[in-house]
């Protein structure tokens, strides 16, 4: 900024609206006043409307008995439970389908994204066909397709499709055998943890040794062998203390095993397939964003192709891939709210749907639902900021 | 020793380096792994495509009036055919369809004008599309003036409603988005934090909760006795949601304009709105078009959510038609038709946006 000339050299003092600082102050005061007036107006109207309808505000309704059942719940729940518990059941169901969706979408997305860059013409075409088809069809339509046109069209329990007489698929859902753990099984998760700790230690030691001496062990393979092999060994040594509860057709339905409801399957499939098409594009553009010179320079150092990928391309590509990837994960979590259209008991369906209809507490219910999603997005964006700060390029 | 005095005729390249055979060798069978992948891909294509083509074309029934005309061996397009008017216009009175057609045609002409680079007067056409066209379309569709019959919004539906929701949401969100984006870059702390909170709030919650909010909470916010049309409530929700996303796209475009542009404008004595309106925004908006088209595609797909609050957009009306007792069991046909319609729109828009990106993004080719 230049030196401001003294006021008396310019004649009379300019009016206050020519002063930028005063104008900014005035503008902000006006904004606050407008927002406050708007809020007061809304709150006043809402109070009148609630009084007219005889609805009492407050979160007291959370302790009342819900009186409706929920098709799938990860915790103990019955129609005698409270609305508060309904909220928790819905939230857990949302998190369950989101977590499984994120895993499946990542796997499919990375495979398709890499296939899209394959030198094989046919494979690249197939991958781009997948991407173009699934990302240009609305998610809700895909959910309906899987639910109404595929899973609801499955045969009845008597004519179920079966895989080796242990896994069954029919109109009521997917039936899987359930492992029943006997005493002595506790050792296996324990050895699993031990194996993971050991492999982390091995990787760190191997890295130090590599930096000091230039020699390295194939730590990845050894870790894999440890993590898979050690628990297996213990399993065999303790005489396989697991029995499988295989679902069995009794009367008109299957008994035993784990039942996965078709609503969950449809939502999970649609979410994973839809989000995977976006992830595939992110992966492709992330890999393509690495300048070709990087690969060529690594090859000029005569690094083998495997190391070129692992040490040069992938770490740089991940820096480009991870921020849009997390925002896709966030989209997936938000999109899981479409569950309400097919009746999968997620947060929006059981809480913003059934609970709202039964209690009429629109403001409390909608605010709680929105707060959950806001907290999730806040946590994810905090992670993103942390990650970006960690991997940001340190330039000269 | 012999000396060749004539030029040797150019020989054709060896057969295995040119032509279709070479192409096959290089692109499909360049090694054992690739050969396996190619064969797997061919098998996959065969498994997926044969039944699909048989179902959708070879065994399908195309003409007829009722379900008895369908053999049920393949797709029954008779169902879609019988319902086509409804899928496109909703429950709009059959005698008034010309009004919708005029709106569709005007819209198509305007969009084509904007999309084809060679045509002149872009700025005026854009202004007409954003300001004059919505007013014109509303009066023509709703009626009540110039002797036109009033058509209540609950009779609007199908593809027409999908387009209305997407276009109105977009047009209304654009100015709000510009203001929010400018506010987010403002030096004034209160304006800035207000914009940040507003944008992050609407971006952080799923559209469906916003639509729920618009349909159950909005009536509570208004004075007792005032009621808002269901379509308008949905439009308010969609606009708020879309303006937050739009603001982020515009902010990205604004960030790409070098600071020097604004400083140069300030040096010429321009005020804030002049600098923004004449120097920064025109340059930024051009760069933003691909981003805006992309958010429009997601909005177009997201309009399907309004069926959850009881409006009959394209998907909603297909879903409603599936529960018609005369046409039970044609879910697949209905969904394939709806998917095809959405796909055509979204795919062509995404191709256009890719074309624009290539046009604007020169010099970084590998």
TrEMBL record, chain A:
Major site of localization recorded for this protein: membrane
Keyword Cell membrane annotated: yes
Topology of this chain in the membrane: Multi-pass membrane protein
Keywords: Amino-acid transport, Cell membrane, Membrane, Transmembrane, Transmembrane helix, Transport
Listed GO CC annotations: ATP-binding cassette (ABC) transporter complex
ABC transmembrane type-1 domain mapped to chain residues: 91-384
Transmembrane segments: 24-43, 87-112, 133-154, 184-205, 217-244, 264-283, 365-387
Location of the protein in the cell: Cell inner membrane; Cell membrane
A molecular-function term among this protein's GO annotations: transmembrane transporter activity
GO biological process, one term: amino acid transport
SUPFAM superfamilies given in the database record: MetI-like
Pfam families linked to this entry: BPD_transp_1
PANTHER family reported in the protein's UniProt record: AMINO-ACID ABC TRANSPORTER PERMEASE PROTEIN YHDX-RELATED, MEMBRANE COMPONENT OF AMINO ACID ABC TRANSPORTER
Similarity remark: Belongs to the binding-protein-dependent transport system permease family. HisMQ subfamily.
Annotated protein name in UniProt: Amino acid ABC transporter permease
Species in which this protein is naturally found: Billgrantia desiderata
UniProtKB/TrEMBL annotation, chain B:
Name of the protein described by the UniProt record: Amino acid ABC transporter permease
Keyword annotations: Amino-acid transport, Cell membrane, Membrane, Transmembrane, Transmembrane helix, Transport
PROSITE patterns documented for this protein: ABC_TM1
Gene3D superfamilies in the cross-refs: MetI-like
Its membrane topology: Multi-pass membrane protein
UniProt superkingdom: Bacteria
Residue intervals of the ABC transmembrane type-1 domain: 159-353
Family: Belongs to the binding-protein-dependent transport system permease family. HisMQ subfamily.
InterPro entries hit by this protein: AA_ABC_transptr_permease_3TM, ArtM/GltK/GlnP/TcyL/YhdX-like, MetI-like, MetI-like_sf
Places the protein is found: Cell inner membrane; Cell membrane
GO biological process terms, semicolon-separated: amino acid transport
NCBIfam families documented for this protein: HEQRo_perm_3TM
Molecular functions (GO terms): transmembrane transporter activity
One cellular component (GO) term of this entry: ATP-binding cassette (ABC) transporter complex
Transmembrane parts of this sequence: 35-58, 97-117, 124-146, 158-182, 194-222, 272-293, 305-322, 328-349
């Amino acid at each position: 900024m230049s030196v401001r000339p003294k006021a008396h050299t310019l004649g009379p003092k300019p009016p206050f609206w020519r002063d930028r600082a005063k104008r900014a102050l005035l503008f902000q005061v006006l904004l606050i006043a407008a927002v406050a007036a708007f809020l007061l107006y809304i709150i006043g109207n809402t109070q009148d409307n609630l009084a007219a309808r005889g609805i009492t505000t407050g979160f007291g309704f959370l302790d009342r008995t819900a009186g409706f059942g929920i098709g799938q719940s990860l915790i103990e729940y019955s129609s005698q439970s409270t609305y508060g518990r309904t909220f928790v059941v819905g939230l857990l169901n949302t998190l369950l389908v989101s977590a499984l969706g994120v895993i499946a979408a990542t796997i499919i997305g990375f495979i398709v994204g890499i296939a899209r860059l394959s030198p094989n013409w046919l494979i690249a075409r197939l991958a781009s066909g997948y991407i173009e088809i699934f990302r240009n069809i609305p998610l809700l339509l895909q959910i309906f397709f899987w639910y109404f046109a595929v899973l609801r069209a499955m045969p009845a329990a008597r004519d179920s499709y079966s895989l080796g007489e242990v896994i069954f698929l029919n109109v009521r859902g997917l039936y899987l055998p359930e492992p029943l753990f006997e005493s002595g099984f506790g050792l296996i998760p324990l050895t699993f943890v031990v194996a993971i700790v050991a492999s982390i230690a091995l990787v760190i030691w191997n890295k130090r040794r590599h930096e000091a001496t230039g020699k390295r062990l194939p730590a990845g393979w050894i870790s894999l062998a440890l993590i898979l092999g050690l628990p297996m060994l213990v399993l065999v040594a303790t005489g396989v203390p697991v029995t499988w509860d295989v679902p069995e057709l009794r009367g008109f339905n299957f008994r035993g095993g784990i039942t996965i409801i078709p609503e969950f399957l449809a939502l999970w499939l649609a979410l994973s397939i839809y989000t995977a098409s976006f992830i595939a594009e992110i992966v492709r553009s992330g890999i393509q964003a690495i300048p070709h010179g990087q690969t060529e320079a690594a090859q000029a150092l005569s690094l083998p192709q495997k190391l070129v990928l692992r040490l040069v391309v992938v770490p740089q590509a991940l820096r480009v891939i991870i921020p849009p990837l997390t925002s896709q994960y966030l989209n997936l979590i938000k999109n899981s709210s479409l569950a309400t259209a097919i009746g999968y008991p997620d947060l929006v369906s059981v809480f913003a749907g059934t609970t709202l209809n039964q209690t009429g507490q629109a403001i409390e219910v909608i605010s709680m639902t929105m707060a959950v999603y806001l907290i999730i997005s806040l946590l994810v964006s905090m992670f993103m900021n942390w990650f970006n700060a960690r991997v940001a390029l340190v330039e000269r | 020793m012999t000396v060749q005095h004539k030029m040797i005729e150019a020989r054709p390249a060896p057969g295995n380096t040119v032509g279709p055979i070479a192409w096959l060798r290089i692109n499909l069978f360049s090694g054992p792994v690739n050969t396996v992948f190619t064969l797997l891909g061919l098998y996959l294509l065969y498994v997926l495509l044969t039944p699909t083509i048989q179902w959708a074309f070879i065994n399908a029934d195309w003409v007829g009036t009722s379900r008895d005309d369908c053999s049920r061996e393949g797709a029954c397009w008779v169902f879609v055919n019988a319902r086509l008017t409804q899928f496109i216009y909703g429950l709009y009175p059959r005698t008034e369809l010309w009004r919708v057609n005029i709106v569709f045609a005007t819209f198509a002409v305007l969009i084509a004008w904007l999309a084809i680079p060679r045509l002149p007067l872009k700025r005026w056409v854009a202004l007409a599309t954003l300001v004059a066209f919505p007013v014109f379309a509303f009066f023509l569709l709703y009626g009540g003036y110039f002797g036109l019959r009033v058509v209540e919004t609950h009779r609007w539906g199908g593809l027409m409603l999908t387009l209305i929701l997407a276009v109105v949401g977009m047009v209304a969100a654009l100015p709000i988005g510009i203001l929010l984006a400018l506010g987010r870059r403002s030096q004034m702390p209160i304006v800035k934090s207000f914009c940040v909170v507003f944008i992050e709030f609407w971006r952080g919650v799923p559209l469906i909760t916003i639509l729920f909010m618009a349909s159950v909470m909005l009536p509570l916010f208004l004075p007792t006795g005032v009621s808002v049309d269901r379509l308008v409530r949905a439009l308010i929700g969609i606009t708020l949601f879309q303006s937050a996303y739009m603001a982020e796209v515009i902010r990205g475009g604004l960030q790409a304009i070098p600071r020097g542009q604004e400083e140069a404008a300030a040096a010429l004595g321009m005020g804030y709105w002049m600098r923004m309106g004449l120097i920064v925004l025109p340059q930024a908006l051009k760069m933003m078009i691909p981003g805006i088209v992309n958010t429009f595609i997601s909005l177009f797909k997201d309009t399907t959510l309004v069926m959850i609050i009881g409006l009959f957009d394209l998907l909603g009306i297909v879903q409603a038609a599936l529960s018609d007792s005369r046409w039970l069991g044609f879910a697949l046909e209905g969904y394939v038709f709806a998917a095809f319609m959405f796909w055509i729109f979204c795919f062509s828009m995404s191709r256009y946006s890719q074309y624009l990106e290539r046009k604007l993004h020169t010099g970084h080719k590998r």
